[in-house]
Amino acid sequence: MREIVHLQIGQCGNQIGSKFWEVIGEEHGINSVGTYEGDTDLQLERVNVYFNEAHGGKYVPRALLVDLEPGTMDSVRGSRIGKLFRPDNFIHGSSGAGNNWAKGHYTEGAELVEQVVDRVRNEAESCDCMQGFQFVHSLGGGTGSGMGTLIINKIREEYPDRIMNSFSIMPSPKVSDTVVEPYNATLSIHQLIENTDETYCIDNEALYDIGNNTAIQEIFRRIGEQFSVMFRRKAFLHWYTGEGMDELEFTEAESNLNDLVSEYQQYQDATADLDWEPDEDIPEEEVPSSSAVTMQRTVEVKTETVTETTRQLDDM
Ligand SMILES: Nc1nc2c(ncn2[C@@H]2O[C@H](COP(=O)(O)OP(=O)(O)OP(=O)(O)O)[C@@H](O)[C@H]2O)c(=O)[nH]1
Ligand SMILES: [Mg+2]
What we know:
Layout: E1 4-9, H1 10-27, H2 42-45, E2 51-53, E3 59-61, E4 63-67, H3 70-77, E5 90-92, H4 101-105, H5 108-125, E6 132-138, H6 143-158, E7 163-170, H7 181-195, E8 198-203, H8 204-208, H9 216-232, H10 237-241, H11 247-272, E9 294-301, E10 306-313
Parallel strand pairs: 1-4, 1-6, 4-5, 6-7, 7-8
Antiparallel strand pairs: 2-3, 9-10
This protein binds guanosine-5'-triphosphate (GTP) and magnesium ion (MG).
The site of magnesium ion (MG) has 6 residues, from α1.
């Protein structure tokens, strides 16, 4: 069987992750205490992808629930499906990360991470042919984002040939008023680019404006702009450097995110500008070397040949 190990981290991760288990349990005909009550063989055919079979025919989610504070876990434990999970797989600290990515990644989270990796190892060893890992976390707080990316890095190191996926909730000022969320998100994206195979970005702003379709580039651009406004003034930076973080990591994360925005811009232009004609009036010399420059990729389709040209145009 191709098993998946699931991890849910931080408050948002545990809320959304628990909803996932409610839905997946229902699909497989597994009730809130792990007993099969379904009516079609199909429900059990691939049940081992997400569930372990325990003694007494109980199905137990292959899930780890992690937070740096006890509150979220208590509420999952007390919820309707609280008895579904393996008690050993609830792992929590006592202090929380207080919306500080550095606490999740470097200090508080680093103290708890080995305990998490031990449980991951334990789950991985009982798999027959593990596919990989899936993470559910928000990028706006301190635990899901900071500690979440730390756990991802550790697991990646130990299981480099397994698939690593994340379901990452992107912050929006419309849903939360914690001012440092763009910092936490940008620092996380910087890590996720390196260490996951796939990241599914779920935009809290789109959840707020239900029905609005937000292009991924717009989310990154929004977070990047908010990041830059604060970082230019070094606002709240001491919260992070106080935990031992280097300012350089901020600079790198920012430029990495800007690259990502430019890359998506290229894809967008490549599809939008199929009939673009080179404009001779634009002098190529006058391109400023600042970050305001975007690359515009133009695909010219002719009857017999397809050529791809890259030009630099002024963003303004
Ligand atoms: N959609 C959704 N977003 C949530 C939920 N809970 C928190 N968030 C979002 O998650 C971000 C805050 O992160 P949390 O998950 O609360 O933080 P954490 O990972 O527990 O980290 P700390 O509390 O800072 O230690 C904000 O952007 C919130 O809008 C939830 O239940 N649903
Ligand atoms: Mg929290």
